[in-house]
């Protein structure tokens, strides 16, 4: 083993938390190393956010050609899917972005150490599996190793018939029938991809509703529109067992009353959540505390119980979102550099990239009730918006929740075209403690989809104008 290298900061993992934190730390004058055993960019860029959005975009274009272009007077005949080319394009998008991280590392003088990291009792980092074994010393160590899909004990991933989200991004052919276990963000997005490409898609969800972390009204609206598109749902239904029989998977499921039914498909996507990826890091030997869910316990400065060792992103508590992880990584290194930094956990948006998209920030109506907050609601539908009508995208609405006493915006929920982009206005509003009147008085360009936000805010103040 070579002599130990020394850095100001060693970051384990190069996902949205790790690579962003590495670059920002280097910009702040630190000598930084980032340890990554596979590909730069982590799950998000390689087998998560980016490739899934590439497939969502491609499949939506196909769906438009099939079902929507004729309404615009465009005749598209003989449209078909070249699935290998679609997957190749997805891979090219990933390569472009991951190579871009490598370029940013070089530009900012971040050292990329290849291999698997393990933290020792004396707070050093052993790296194996790379070019050669080596030991690294650092003033500060940051764990940013992300998360991995949860596997059902009776339905082990085989990468062919029983797959996780990574497998869903690497299928060699479009399945005739796809069962998605789990009605959360990832399952609905990947289900939408293959539904558009011609698969029969059935979603099994143990709870009584899909996207349980979102406002109930938003989730119900999303389920209705996905059902209209052809997606099937079995809610309040649990998977009891499953096995591969030939070229199919058979599942035994039970509804809320306990009645069992057998469902089958040629591919089953298990999307029941993710778990912190901490195996092999040596946390127990290093004395680093984890909670019952396996998450690393940190304080308000992201420091573990071991001085000088920190953790950010999916390995700690909070929503497992790429943008949350990046913000934590930046906040941490800025604090280490002596700056004031803060992550506003009340203003972290969540998005489901189906079509239409669904996006939320802040409190749902149910959470506001649970907290005993007196609130008012403002709503406006896309069906009364000029731009949405011109686009032929009239499904959905904007729902704003404001404190009844102060008028302060405490929650924003959008289902509709480009909700993922539109939610930023509501996040900004909450970040600056905006009241409904602030949004209502903000001049929005006409005609735009974002006018629906303004109209919902007007509904909270003087009442709807265009409805």
Could you explain how this protein is built, in words?
The structure is a single chain. This protein has 467 residues and is an alpha/beta fold. It folds into three domains: 2-149 and 275-343, 3-Layer(bba) Sandwich (FAD/NAD(P)-binding domain); 162-272, FAD/NAD(P)-binding domain; 349-461, FAD/NAD-linked reductase, C-terminal dimerisation domain (Enolase-like, domain 1), CATH 3.30.390. The chain contains 14 helices and 22 strands. Strands 1, 2, 3, 4, 5, 6 and 17 form a seven-stranded mixed sheet that branches. The chain has a five-stranded parallel sheet with strand order 8-15-9-10-11. Helix 3 runs antiparallel to helix 4.
Which SSEs are present, and which pair or pack?
Layout: E1 2-12, H1 16-27, E2 32-36, H2 42-47, H3 49-67, H4 83-107, E3 111-114, E4 116-119, E5 125-128, E6 134-143, E7 147-149, E8 162-163, H5 165-168, E9 177-181, H6 185-196, E10 200-204, H7 216-229, E11 232-234, E12 238-245, E13 248-254, E14 260-265, E15 267-270, E16 274-276, H8 283-286, E17 309-311, H9 322-336, E18 350-352, E19 357-362, H10 365-370, E20 375-381, H11 386-391, E21 397-403, E22 409-416, H12 419-431, H13 436-441, H14 451-461
Parallel strand pairs: 1-2, 1-6, 2-3, 6-17, 8-15, 9-10, 9-15, 10-11
Antiparallel strand pairs: 4-5, 5-6, 7-16, 12-13, 13-14, 18-19, 19-22, 20-21, 21-22
Helix pairs in contact: 1-9, 3-4, 3-6
């Amino acid at each position: 083993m070579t002599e130990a290298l020394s850095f100001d900061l060693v970051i384990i993992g190069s996902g949205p938390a790790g690579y962003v934190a590495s670059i920002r730390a280097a910009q702040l004058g630190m000598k930084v190393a980032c340890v990554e055993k596979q590909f730069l960019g982590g799950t998000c860029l390689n087998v998560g956010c980016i490739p899934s959005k590439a497939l969502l975009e491609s499949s939506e274009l196909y769906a438009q050609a099939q079902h929507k272009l004729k309404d615009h007077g465009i005749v598209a005949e003989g449209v078909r899917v070249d699935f290998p080319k679609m997957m190749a394009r997805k891979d090219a998008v990933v390569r472009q972005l991951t190579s871009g991280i490598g370029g940013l590392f070089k530009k900012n003088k971040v050292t990329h150490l290849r291999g698997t990291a393990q933290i020792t009792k004396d707070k050093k980092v052993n790296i194996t599996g790379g070019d050669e074994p080596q030991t690294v010393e650092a003033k500060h160590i940051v764990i940013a190793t992300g998360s991995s899909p949860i596997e059902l004990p009776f339905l082990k991933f085989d990468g062919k018939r029983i797959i996780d989200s990574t497998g869903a991004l690497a299928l060699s052919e479009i399945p005739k029938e796809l069962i998605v276990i789990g009605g959360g963000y990832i399952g609905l997005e990947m289900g939408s991809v293959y539904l558009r490409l011609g698969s029969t898609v059935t979603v099994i969800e143990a709870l009584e509703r899909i996207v349980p972390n979102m406002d109930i009204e938003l989730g119900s609206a999303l389920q209705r529109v996905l059902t209209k598109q052809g997606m099937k749902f079995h809610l309040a239904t649990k998977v009891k067992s499953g096995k591969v029989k030939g070229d199919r998977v058979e599942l035994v499921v039970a509804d809320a009353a306990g009645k069992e039914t057998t469902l089958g498909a040629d591919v089953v996507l298990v999307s029941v959540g993710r778990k912190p990826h901490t195996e092999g890091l040596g946390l127990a030997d290093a004395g680093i505390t984890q909670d019952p869910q396996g998450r690393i316990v940190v304080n308000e400065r992201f420091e573990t119980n071991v001085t000088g060792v920190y953790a950010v992103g999916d390995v700690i508590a909070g929503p497992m979102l790429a943008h949350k992880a990046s913000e934590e990584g930046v906040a941490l290194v800025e604090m280490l550099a002596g700056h004031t930094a803060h992550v506003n956990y009340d203003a972290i948006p969540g998005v489901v990239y189906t079509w239409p998209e669904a996006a939320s920030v802040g409190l749902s109506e149910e959470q506001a009730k649970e907290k005993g907050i007196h609130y008012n609601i403002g709503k406006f539908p896309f069906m009364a918006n000029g731009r949405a009508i011109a686009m032929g995208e009239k499904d959905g609405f904007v729902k704003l929740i404001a404190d009844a006493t102060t008028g302060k915006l405490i929650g924003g929920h959008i289902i509709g075209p480009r909700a993922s982009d539109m939610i930023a206005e509501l996040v900004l509003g909450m970040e600056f403690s905006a009241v409904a009147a602030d949004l209502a008085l903000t001049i929005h360009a006409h005609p735009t989809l974002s006018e629906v936000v303004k109209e919902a805010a007007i509904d909270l103040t003087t009442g709807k104008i265009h409805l």
